[in-house]
Amino acid sequence: MKNTRKHHRTIRPRSTRDLRAEVADLAATLASTAGKGELVIEDRRISAQTIQFEWDRLLKAFPPQLRSRLTLKILEPEPASHARHPAIDQARSVMLGTPNFRFEVVRQLIGADIDQAGPQSVEALVEKIGASQFTVRKVLGELVGCGIVKQSRPANARFSLKSADINPELLGIARAMPQTLRFRYAAGTRPRSMGELIQRFEQLMQAGTSAGWKNIGLSGSAATNLLRLRQVDLLGVPRMDLTAYIAKSAKTFDVSLLHELDSGLEYVSDVFWPASLVITPVRSDVMFNHPDGDHPWRFAQNSDIYLALLHTDLREQAVQFAAGGGRGW
């Protein structure tokens, strides 16, 4: 006669990988018995919503007779251990700041310089960014005053810059830095190599991705290496950069999307913490800003690849990328 006793297991998962391993182990234990199993979660490092989502997803893989004998109990943490960074809400998303139109104007002018599209009119920038003419004119005046942007004659004015003249320090002075979302590997998880992480991104692109990935493009040094070599040769790539093209009206970014790339990644609010993955939100009109590129890779826009290279201290590679015409090199 099979053992019918109830199995209680209390765990303290530090990541979704830990959780999945424990669920699978408990299910394996019950498979050879007639008993029931209860998984109790305490002192958790991941949200209750994430735990429940992973539990529901994993249970679908088990036969009904086993599934019916498994239960989950999530203990609420003590108040002292409940603190989460205020930027993360209960929907597992990060609060986005208001659009920085100085950054949006600069990235459009960098793109025009790399594409050799010539100086840009206010009207063209308004159309591409989707901001009001008043806002764009005000920002351009500030950037001209900082010396970043050059203006042609006052009548029918056009605006331009040289990509090679731009550096992070200058962007900081002009308050034209973007918001960035940084991700590291949670404690206790096995970090993927950069090659593995990029190949996983390729697989997501090939598989017909969920809606959240359709406006995300590969950026930075990984993008330039793939564009040049058409293969994964990522020795020395410091991190993976992505650009997310998001509507100006968006208030949050769903960080649970990253679980599809690697469930070991977690959001970190400290901008000085080393990151394995950095996402830069772009808040311009999506009609003029979107990821594209040769199948199966989906690349960010030239300006965003260039800026990501600058922000990882790869200035020489950035200048070479721009001088070669960006993705067309």
Name the descriptors:
329 residues; alpha/beta; Arc Repressor Mutant, subunit A; five-stranded mixed β-sheet; 11 helices; WH_DNA-bd_sf
Describe the structure.
With 329 residues, the chain is an alpha/beta fold. The chain has 3 domains: 7-83, no CATH class; 101-173, Orthogonal Bundle (Arc Repressor Mutant, subunit A); 181-320, no CATH class. Helix content is 35%, strand content 15%. The protein contains 11 helices and 12 strands. A 5-stranded mixed beta sheet has the order 8-9-12-7-11. Helix 1 (16-31) runs parallel beside helix 2 (48-59) and helix 4 packs across helix 6 (133-146). The radius of gyration is 24 Å and the shape is elongated. Residues 78-91 have low confidence and may be disordered.
How much of the residues is beta strand, in percent? Answer: 15-25%
Number of strands: 12
Largest sheet: 5 strands, mixed
- What spatial form do the alpha-carbon principal axes imply? elongated
Mean pLDDT: 82
Short description:
The chain has eleven helices and twelve strands. It has helices spanning 16-31, 48-59, 64-67, 101-114, 122-129, 133-146, 168-173, 194-206, 220-229, 302-311, 315-323; strands at 7-11, 37-41, 70-74, 93-95, 150-151, 159-160, 181-185, 216-219, 240-245, 252-254, 265-268, 277-282.
